[in-house]
Amino acid sequence: MESKPKNELIRIAGYEGRVSIDPTGRAKGRGVYLCPREDCFAKAAKRRAISRSVEIEITKERMEELVEELKEYAKKNP
């Protein structure tokens, strides 16, 4: 729970029942900003913070897919 500039964070967007990583920060729907580190994402997943913020229930399988997408994003954008 620390503050960082918006350009250092990644947005997770939820729209029409779908949740995805939004690297542009411009996707439709509700969003939540997280630091792109795996430990930050794991903590948010454990606390169900992403589901609460985007107001969409996220299955365990989809959460695992989001973690993998985040890893790929982090590799491409160090």
Gist of the model:
This protein has 78 residues and is an alpha+beta fold. The protein has helices spanning 38-46, 49-54, 60-76; strands at 10-15, 18-22, 30-34.
Task: Describe the secondary-structure layout.
Layout: E1 10-15, E2 18-22, E3 30-34, H1 38-46, H2 49-54, H3 60-76
Antiparallel strand pairs: 1-2, 1-3
Helix pairs in contact: 1-3
List keywords for this structure.
single chain, about 80 residues, alpha+beta, Hypothetical Cytosolic Protein, Chain: A, three-stranded antiparallel beta sheet, about 20% strand, globular
Give structural notes.
The protein has 78 residues and is an alpha+beta fold. The protein has one domain: Hypothetical Cytosolic Protein, Chain: A. It is 41% helix and 21% strand. The protein contains 3 helices and 3 strands. The protein has helices spanning 38-46, 49-54, 60-76; strands at residues 10-15, 18-22, 30-34. Strands 2-1-3 form a 3-stranded antiparallel β-sheet. A hairpin with a 2-residue loop joins strand 1 (10-15) and strand 2 (18-22). Helix 1 packs antiparallel against helix 3.
